[in-house]
Amino acid sequence: MRLRQIALASSHLDVVVEALDDIFGLKVAYNDPHIHHYGLRNAVIPVGTDFLEVVEPIRPDCTGAGFIARRGDAGYMVILQDADAEAHRARLQAMGVRVVDDIDTKAYRASHYHPADFAGFLVSIDQQRSAPDYLEPYGDWMPAGPDWRAARTDQVLDMTAVTLSAPDPDALAKRWSALLDQPLDDGAGRRITLAHGEIRFTDGGGGAETAIKGIELKVSGVDQAIERATSGGLNVNSDGILIGGVRFKPVA
Predict the structure, then answer these.
(1) Can you tell me the distance from the alpha carbon of 177 to that of 182, in angstroms, rounded to the nearest whole number?
(2) Tens of pLDDT along 25-82?
(3) Angle between helices 222-231 and 13-24 in degrees, nearest 10
(4) What 3-state class would DSSP assign to 106?
(5) Which among 137, 155, 214, 249 could disulfide-bond with 49, CB atoms 3.0 to 4.6 Å apart, if both were Cys?
(6) Cα 144 to the chain's mean position, in Å?
């Protein structure tokens, strides 16, 4: 299993996309017309061979609009990739986890799982059927469109981790370990190390809800990214740069 895509929900998609470009040089690869039926528009952005997605509601009655009304701009969805999405679906349904959306095509298989059953997070476990080796870095990835490789930038080399927060991070870590059928790292504490990327768990800082708190990016110039963010007036602290309600932490 690998960490492949993180989605942010924002009422100002273009502003978030511009900030990601200004700070990290990231470029949009794809605007998926198929997500309009969710009441959303989006931009999918390569980060190395992984992806960020920004979604914005285009209908006030959609789930994304309700999410933003409750939380403001924030991390919205975690998308994982595996060699056998069907096996994970069967296992999770046996655990009582509900499927809220289903994509089943010749090239792609995905199941979106109910946040209430996934410890407070909207999660999808996907399989790219046209890429037999799911760890092949430049393999097809349907959500990013056919030309995503051309939109990559050398300024961002990889998405190395996502940090999830909760009032009880130890319980969250144990729940995710069971849901994903992945062990917690004994030596690293609240962490699941995947075949590519990590999932980390931390205290929510007094908040009552779970949240996608941070995204770690491997970049070619950490100091330059921080300098651009600071001079651009963004909120910068030791946890990273606040963009779209999520802290982006650049690392070498």
Answers:
(1) 5
(2) 999 999 999 999 999 999 999 999 999 999 999 999 999 999 999 999 999 999 999 9
(3) 130
(4) coil
(5) 137
(6) 13
Question: For 61-70, 84-93, 182-191, which range has the lowest pLDDT when averaged over its residues?
Answer: 182-191
With tokens 């609240």, the residue in question is: 190
- Domains of the chain in start order, with CATH, are 2-132+152-251 (3.10.180.10)
Category of 120 on φ-ψ map: left (φ > 0), alpha (ψ -120 to 50) or beta: left
Name the residue with tokens 């990739």.
Answer: 81
List all residues 6 or more positions away from 33 whose beta carbon is below 8 Å from its beta carbon: none
Tokens of 64: 């994304």
- Please say whether the beta carbons of 43 and 13 come within 8 A: yes
Using one digit for the tens of pLDDT, what is the confidence trace for 240-249?
A: 999 999 999 9
Residue with tokens 């999770």: 92
Residues 6+ apart with CB under 8 A from 112: 77, 99, 100, 101, 102, 122, 123, 124
Q: Which long-range contacts (CB under 8 A, 24 or more apart) does 67-71 make?
A: 67/9, 68/9, 68/10, 68/11, 71/9, 71/209, 71/211, 71/245
What average pLDDT does the structure give for the chain?
96
